[in-house]
Design goal:
- The structure holds two protein chains of two kinds.
- By secondary structure, chain A is an alpha/beta fold.
- Chain A has a single domain, classed as 3-Layer(aba) Sandwich (Rossmann fold).
- Chain A has four helices and eight strands.
- In chain A, the strands form two sheets. Chain A has a six-stranded parallel sheet with strand order 2-1-3-4-5-8, with helices on both faces. Chain A has a two-stranded antiparallel sheet with strand order 6-7.
- In chain A, helix 1 crosses helix 4 and helix 2 runs parallel beside helix 3.
- The radius of gyration of chain A is 16 Å and the shape is globular.
- Chain A starts with 7 loop residues before the first strand and ends in a 12-residue tail after the last strand.
- In chain B, about 45% of the residues lie in helices and about 15% in strands.
- In chain B, the strands form two sheets. In chain B, strands 3-2-1-4-5-6-9 form a seven-stranded parallel sheet, sandwiched between helices. A two-stranded parallel sheet of chain B has the order 7-8.
- Chain B is built from eight helices and nine strands.
- Chain B starts with 8 loop residues before the first strand and ends in a 10-residue tail after the last strand.
- By secondary structure, chain B is α/β, with parallel strands linked by helices.
- The chains are: A alpha/beta, B alpha/beta.
- Chains A and B meet through helix 3, helix 4 and strand 8 of A and helix 5, strand 8, helix 8 and strand 9 of B.
């Protein structure tokens, strides 16, 4: 699928990794001028004047999008940084897309801090959608198990996923493109679950 | 967005007008062949005539024999059905009353079309889809299936039923290669609701403007914007979403606004 971001600026940052790189490539392939930003510094969402194009979309990828963490501790700082970065850049934007773990939609036993943190991102997608409308649409993608760099992130979801395989990076990228699409103009505050049905069938062992 | 639906056959119920017709056009513009199903036979013929590759079928979604015949006609013409869009639906306009006064015949009419109809048409389409081991179903629900509203209890219950039925279908059909999602439109401008919003002189009514204060995007949707969401749920690239309820509601259900 293709969207038309010709001449528009896409600011992309957050957790660096295979998914974030794939998102940058796809946005560029669809015509955007992609700028790497560091959301820990709100000023970084204002790229230097040399960059051309009208600011359009801010994409922030959570650390949680990389899968369940090894230790369930230390989350929360990223969320405050994301809120600050979004509020700071909102006056110049039309779309914000967050990417986080499907554990933000259904809490995972043993991951209290992580699940709450990711649910916080789902909640701020909704509150900032209300706050920044009608000029800016704020939406998100919650990812389940996916393949990247030859390995499956959050493989343990697959025992409880209706679609019997992990996602490809391209399947996640497609959802982000849809939410960044200028033609998609009546959605805000919504999180798309790109999880093969994990969030609806979590309690059932397939 | 643009995607390649040139090899796809998409069966849309309630396709003679409103969201259904806009969806038929949007999907056809991306190359799909469309089965235009509607209880209004002349309307279905008219919309099919507007599209490059289409078949009109008249059917009542409450009747299994209608659904079976429509599916047979579609298979005869196109050989397969890739996506079913369960769009046909009705709400109460005359009986806007509380549940203690809600008429039984109106209850059965609404639940019969909106919820039973989803089961009946899906049941017919799923026979060939399961045999092929691939397919998709997109169910058009409503924000009232998520957040309740007064004076339309049958519609509220039927739409909530559709949303949860979508999830159970997705669980059952995922291992069979079939994705099932629902989409909940919020307030939508159609020929039917335009009068409600704009009145005779074409100006946006004060009462409606007040109502729009509770929607972050501050306006009703155009049918084309709902069709855009349906296009995404039909897109071949979007192949890891199932059981999902996609809100295309301008943020109506995002949270509490005051």
């Amino acid at each position: 699928m293709n969207i038309d971001l010709d001449g528009k600026l896409a600011l992309v940052g957050g957790s660096e990794g295979a998914l974030t790189s794939a998102l940058r490539r796809a946005l560029a392939d669809n015509g955007a001028n992609v700028v790497e930003i560091d959301p820990t510094s709100p000023a970084a969402t204002e790229p230097a004047g040399a960059t051309q194009g009208e600011p359009f979309v801010l994409v922030l990828v959570s650390e949680g999008a990389n899968g369940l963490p090894e230790t369930d501790a230390g989350f929360g700082r990223e969320r405050a940084e994301f809120v600050a970065a979004i509020r700071h850049s909102a006056p110049r934007l039309k779309r914000v897309v967050l990417v986080f773990s499907a554990a933000g939609q259904v809490p995972v036993k043993g991951f209290a801090d992580f699940s709450a943190d990711q649910a916080g991102l789902a909640s701020l997608t909704r509150t900032l959608g209300m706050e920044l409308g009608p000029s800016v649409m704020v939406n998100a993608v919650a990812v389940g198990a996916y393949e990247a760099d030859g390995d499956v992130r959050t493989q343990r979801f697959l025992t409880h996923t209706g679609v019997k395989r992990a996602a490809t990076l391209n399947e996640i990228v497609s959802a982000v493109l849809f939410l960044a699409d200028p033609d998609n103009a009546y959605m805000t505050g919504h999180t798309l679950n790109v999880d093969g049905g994990w969030a609806i069938g979590y309690a059932r062992n397939f | 967005m643009r995607t390649d639906l040139s090899e796809k056959v998409i069966f849309i119920t309630g396709a003679a007008g409103g969201i259904g017709r806009a969806t038929a056009h949007r999907l056809a513009a991306n190359g799909a062949s469309i089965v235009v199903a509607d209880i209004d036979a002349a309307g279905a013929e008219r919309v099919a005539g507007e599209l490059p590759s289409a078949l009109a079928v008249s059917m009542d979604v409450r009747r299994a024999e209608d659904a079976k015949r429509a599916v047979d006609l579609a298979l005869e013409k196109f050989g397969k059905i890739d996506v079913l869009v369960n769009n046909a639906g009705v709400n109460t306009f005359k009986d806007r009353v509380d549940i203690d006064r809600f008429p039984e015949d109106e209850w059965h009419r609404i639940v019969g079309i909106d919820l039973d109809g989803l089961y009946i048409v899906s049941h017919a389409v799923l026979q060939p889809m399961v045999a092929r081991g691939q397919g998709r179903i997109v169910n058009i629900a409503s924000v009232v299936g998520v957040t309740a509203m007064r004076l339309q209890s049958a519609f509220v219950a039927a739409k909530a039923g559709m949303i949860h039925l979508t999830r159970s279908m997705a669980l059952e059909l995922g291992p069979k290669g079939i994705l099932v999602n629902s989409l909940a439109p919020g307030s939508v401008l159609t020929e039917g609701t335009k009068q409600l919003f704009y009145g005779d002189d074409g100006s946006f009514r004060a009462q409606m403007a007040g109502f729009m204060n509770h929607i972050p995007l501050g306006r009703p949707a155009h049918v084309e914007e709902i069709a855009e969401g349906i296009l995404f749920l039909c897109a071949p690239e979007n192949s890891y979403m199932t059981g999902h309820l996609m809100m295309v509601d301008g943020g109506w259900t995002a949270g509490f606004m005051f």
